[in-house]
Structures are given as C-alpha cells and as structure tokens.
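Hello Y.,

Per our agreement to keep a running log of every chain we model this quarter, I'm adding this entry. I've kept the format consistent with earlier entries: sequence first, then predicted structure.
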Amino acid sequence: MHILAIETSCDETSAAVVSSGNKILSNVVATQTEFHQKYGGIVPEIASRKHIELISPVIQEALDKAKTSFKKIDAVACTYGPGLVGSLLIGLCAAKAFAWSCKIPLIGVNHLEGHIYANFLGPHAAKPPRFPFICLIVS
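Predicted structure for the entry above:
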C-alpha cells in the first residue's frame, strides 16, 4: 500500500509517500522561512498564499522521488488540525481533490498525534515504541 501524505499546518508545504505503513519512499519539504523573516514571525495570509503556489509542485516531486504515480497511490493522508486555518485549508483541499479524483480514501491526521506516530516511520521503525507508552509534546 502506498499513501501520499500532505502537511500544511503552518509555513512549510510538505508531501511524502509512505509504503507498507512505515517505509518512507520520499519526503519533500518546501520552507517559507525567507518570506516571513522580515516580519519577525509567520504571517498567516502569506503562508496560505505560498502553500497555494507550492502544493502541486511539492506533491509531484514527492511522487517522482518515490518513483511512483498518481495511479499507484492507495490513500491520501493530510493534516486537518491544529494549525493555521488558511494553511490547513490548502493542504486539505488538495488532499480531498486528489482522493476524490482517484476514488481512494482520505485519512485526516491530527498534527500533534502525527508527531507522536512519526516515531513509527523511517529509521525509527526498526525499534518503535511499544504500547502502552507515555509521550510528551511541548509546543
């Protein structure tokens, strides 16, 4: 199974392709740091507009790096919150459109829970935490 994952909760546009539940085939991140630096923090409206510009190329790059195509994706996962509303909306709309057009499931992911479950992906997958476990997220 191949899942396309999309993350746009703040100021970075990210897409990844994950196989077999925990193998990362690609992970593409486009940062907006330079656009927000002069303001001393993230400007939500600028973040949303940059996501609009970046979402399609980032998704395509993730598919290309994973050496796969739209037709080989079995589900789409995306962040639904918490985060900047406008930023989340861009990623969610892109994910919904992709899932709908390909007739595949859409999986909503809580941003904070995603940080926890990232421990089960990639290099961490060889020795993931065992249930039950305690986790602390500081934001």
